[in-house]
Amino acid sequence: MPADPVLVAAYVAGLAEAGRAMSTIDRALSAISAAHRDAGNELDPTRHPGVIRVRAGLRRTIGVAPKRLAYPISTEELRRVVEAIPDDLRGARDRALILTGFAGALRRSEVVALTLGDLTFHTKGAVLLIRRSKTDQEGEGQHVGIARGTHPSTDPVAALRRWVDLAQLSDADDPLFGPISWSGRRSRPSALSGRDVARILQARASAAGLGDLAVRGHSLRAGHATEAAARGVPADRLARTTRHKSTAALARYVRPTEALSDTSSADLGL
Q1: Which of 68, 73, 205, 254 could staple 223 via S-S, CB 3.0–4.6 A?
Q2: Closest alpha carbon to 251 in 69, 22, 24
Q3: Quick one: fold of 75-255?
């Protein structure tokens, strides 16, 4: 310390050669910069003109668009998924998990971090307390409202109530969504992982005939944002639900919808 700028430039170039996305490279540079600040070094190698030029070149070469976007599942597709889920204990958990993740625009990490104490039922729906998230690193907590659904099969509040009752959750510290015992008769007092959420959604989507879609754990959050944008929900209101720091972060969900509604190809007489 301080690191040689030539070494830093070679490092990020190596990341690019290994196929890393530009966002990953930027995080690496931010980490290097933070390490130097924490160590009291006045010289930050990431601000060296050579490193800056290398980074600019990489942005032009590999681009900054996400390489793998999760398929944004729609409300109609979600209905197909949950209506195909069997009506047993595991099915009740999966239905509640999927509908809650979609209705609350939750990240996988936020879904599995929920406890029974984070859920409060109200006359008009339910409120979730997200104790910590990607946009709330200090853990101040954020509240997310879940409105009652108009269709019985996709009502997230009803699905949550049924799951809580069937699983006999009673302790405020109990994970809201836990693994099911091998017998399929009870919920274990431990939390699922983020990867479990992705596996559950992928398995249920495949069973509903949607296996050819790129459904992943983020598909619930992406689907909420995309569907809301398509239905004309104002960006600022949508950002309050998704808890994005700025409406600009929602652009990747809103732009595909705008591209279809604003395209001149509809006027070509095809």
Answers
A1: 73
A2: 69
A3: hpI Integrase; Chain A (1.10.443)
How large a percentage of the chain has pLDDT more than 90? 50
Q: What is the pLDDT of residues 213-232, one digit of tens each?
A: 888 888 999 899 888 888 88
**3-class DSSP assignment, residue 148:** coil
Each domain of the chain, given as residue ranges in start order, spans 5-62, 75-255
Question: Both ends of the chain: CA-CA distance in Å?
Answer: 63
Residues ≥6 apart with Cβ < 8 Å to 48: 5, 8, 9
Report the greatest alpha carbon distance in the chain.
Answer: 65
Give the whole-angstrom CA distance, residue 160 versus residue 156: 6
Give the number of residues written for the chain.
270
Q: Which residues contact 207 (CB under 8 A, 6 or more apart)?
A: 81, 84, 85
Residues marked active site are found at 107, 134, 218, 221, 244, 253
Q: 9-30, pLDDT tens digit by residue?
A: 999 889 888 888 888 889 999 9
Cβ partners under 8 Å of residue 132, min gap 6: 113, 139, 141
Q: What is the pTM for the complete model shown? A: 0.72
Distance CA 168, CA 158 (A): 15
